[in-house]
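Hi P.,

Sorry for the delay on this. The queue was packed all week, but I finally got your sequence through. Input first:
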Amino acid sequence: MLSKSQAKAFFLVGTIGFSVIFVGLTIDTFNRIPDQTRQQNLSESAIKGKHLFDKKNCMGCHTIMGEGAYYAPELTKVYERRGEAFIRSMLKNPEQMYPGQRKMTNYKFTDEEIDHLVAFLKWVGGMDLNGFPPKPDLAPNTTARGTQTQGALEAAVTKPIIFDQMCVACHALGGKGGAVGPALDGVGSRRDADYLTKWLHDPTQLKSDSKMPKLPLSEKEIADLTAFLASLKGENK
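Then the structure:
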């Protein structure tokens, strides 16, 4: 058993020692901030986007870097998860992206304001947050494999990144994805490449009352999506 003087010394040494360690770790943390936050990528546009993010109280519904509400999707890695095209469309007109479902307020952002918000979300997504938020542990799904009705021909086409960023928000494939639009399993057996290309350019040209909006897709993205969707024949494996 410690004597009174020994206990006092133990307390003082322990308190001082752990205080020094705490201060050292704090200093080390602050020294890491510029590198881990990719401070060099913090543009004037991203700063304006942060101010706009706070002004519109986006954290009242969304979580970002672990802070905020849980009513709407987490936004820390939204740029990586959904891509710029989806974010711009969502900010421009949330209702158009999710007809009759999405409850996000249309703030009527100008194109310049959308540029700032995209720059802010891109900067946040590029931070080194020590693995936060963790990525879902999902089985890789990089190809579409389908069979013709006779089961004799099998095709494999690389799935475009834009498919997981934008299309799955409304459509399901293999049981995964949204339910706003029809499932895309076997769509290549129902629609040919020419139809799919026209549809991706502007759905309303083929169906005037289509709920699917005209998406901001590049010609390459449309070509890649057409090839992928056209390969989905019969039942997906």
